Amino acid sequence: WLYLRRQKERQLRARRLRDLRALALGQGDFQLRDTAGTPRSKRDFLGRWVLLYFGFTHCPDVCPEELEKLSRAVRLLEREPGLPPVQPLFVTVDPERDDAAALARYLRDFHPRLVGLTGTPEQVRAAARAFRVYVSAGPRDADGDYVVDHSVITFLVDPDGLFRDFYGRSRTAEEVARSVKGHMESYEPLPP
């Protein structure tokens, strides 16, 4: 009975991986720069678990809340013995205002390993498209300021570079950490 149960669980995981590959969410690469100006692509993060959030530094409340939640989830996972480290990533959806210096200033208030990525408007749009993130800059006010409407989702990407799960605003840091831990424990690398 246990053998059949494990076999069924393996089949369900294999089917989920096939479905995720077919979805092609986040399968494309991105060409961005980190806060030190170093070119970064998705390949740079292969072999690591990644929690990825798209947002912008002028966001009044949602982005700081989500980054704080992401940071807390990473800290909770770091307390778990034997789990691999999670790489938190932040990709701006507002490259006009979010250059490397602005990202560095903004992200220092969150997890110390949080990597900020920016690029040209075309590069940022391509990265958002790869993850099917909605992005729309609102109208400018009299001071030229504007808000960027965007999807509020944190993505989990596995060491093979595959999208594994996503977490919306309603999920707590504890729920995110529990889910990530579950994915780590059931993870089987892709065959070569």
Automatic annotation (TrEMBL):
GO terms, molecular function: metal ion binding
UniProt keywords, alphabetically: Copper, Disulfide bond, Metal-binding
Compartment(s): Mitochondrion inner membrane
Domain Thioredoxin intervals: 21-185
A GO cellular component annotation in the UniProt record: mitochondrial inner membrane
Residues in coiled coil: none
Binding site for Cu cation: C59, C63, H150
Main localization, broad class: mitochondrion
Domain of life: Eukaryota
A GO BP annotation: mitochondrial respiratory chain complex IV assembly
Membrane topology, as annotated: Single-pass membrane protein
PROSITE patterns, A to Z: THIOREDOXIN_2 (PS51352)
Disulfide bonds: C59-C63
The family this protein is said to belong to: Belongs to the SCO1/2 family.
The protein's name: SCO2 protein
GN (gene name): Sco2
